[in-house]
Amino acid sequence: MTIALNKPVAPNLAKLIQYLEQVHDSGWYTNFGPLHQQLTERLERFLGVENLLLVSNGTLAIQVACKVLNVQSALTTPFTFVATTSALLWQGINTAFCDIDNDSYNLCPKHVDQALQLDNSYDAIVATHVYGNPCDVAAIQNVAERYNKKIIYDAAHAFGVKVGDKSVLSFGDASTLSFHATKVFHTVEGGAIVFKHKADFEKAKQLINFGIQMDGSLGEPGINAKLNEYQCAVGLTLLDEIESIIENRANLFQQYRAALENIVELPVWHPLASYNGAYMPVCIRDNAKLLKVINALNVNEIQSRRYFTPSLDVAYSEQKSFGCNNSQKLATSILCLPLHNYISESDIKMLANIIYEELK
Ligand SMILES: Cc1ncc(COP(=O)(O)O)c(C=O)c1O
Known about the structure:
Number of strands: 12
Distance between the termini: 26 Å
Number of helices: 13
Order of helices and strands: HHEHEHEHEHEEEEEHHHEHHEHEH
Radius of gyration: 21 Å
Bound molecules: pyridoxal-5'-phosphate
Largest sheet: 8 strands, mixed
Helix content: 40-55%
Low-confidence stretches: none
């Protein structure tokens, strides 16, 4: 039987229907309805944040955050899902790449510092908590303060992650989430932005509703990025189970790490961070060995994905780059293994054994 790379969590159907009946009875399908309100409040409580705005996907979350913070140029990471960069480029933002840290695979604060010494014209730093592993938020904050830059974190992978006792979403001026079906928590399609400042949240709330202001008058032109009530119903249903989903995934992630730590290179985790088991990346720098592993997994009907490749400074080579050797090397060495709520510990043992046999 095929082992899937990812499998969306299925909401409990009976519970989902109860929420859908509420939508049906109220006739309120979208535009900040009662389920939208409930989901917002419950997410804020669960995540330990304020100023959370639901939006229709994680890509628009980045674009709206940039718009609200008036970002016209940004330094960003080349090692992330394409949406982090394409969202900036689609927005017409002058985007330049800085290299990642070789251990954590996240945007490297030292490289950002060096880039800003050479060119201080950028408005913002846009970094991703890759695979749910928090960036060095303290060092990025330090650089941003010294050069007076905004920070936006793409936290699409980092739902529920904490740094010490604080939500990872509480760092920076804004953090964005994706609630795509493949994510740890989902609303089929969807996302959110968590703003540091209430005023930014208020502005964003108008911008995602065409720019219509509270009194009905028109402000700055906006867009439609609202999350509808049907999708909120999925979110509310899944939120009831989210603690056990994260616990299960984090446990599976640790099983993997224990089985693989002496066989392959693994990302070095932020020392104060919790785990959400969003992804299981392994790094095999010898290309022939990497191809052998991929082949053996294929033969055993185990899905894997070279994620992320290519390095985005290569894909968008017309954009400025401050040199991204670490990212380019990693992009040809990384492989994500199956990790989702329905995989078993015995699947993981079997899979680790296949990798061991190929690399010993
Ligand atoms: C790091 C990252 N950023 C942004 C996105 C875009 O989110 P969405 O698919 O909800 O637009 C994703 C989605 O897969 C992602 O992994």
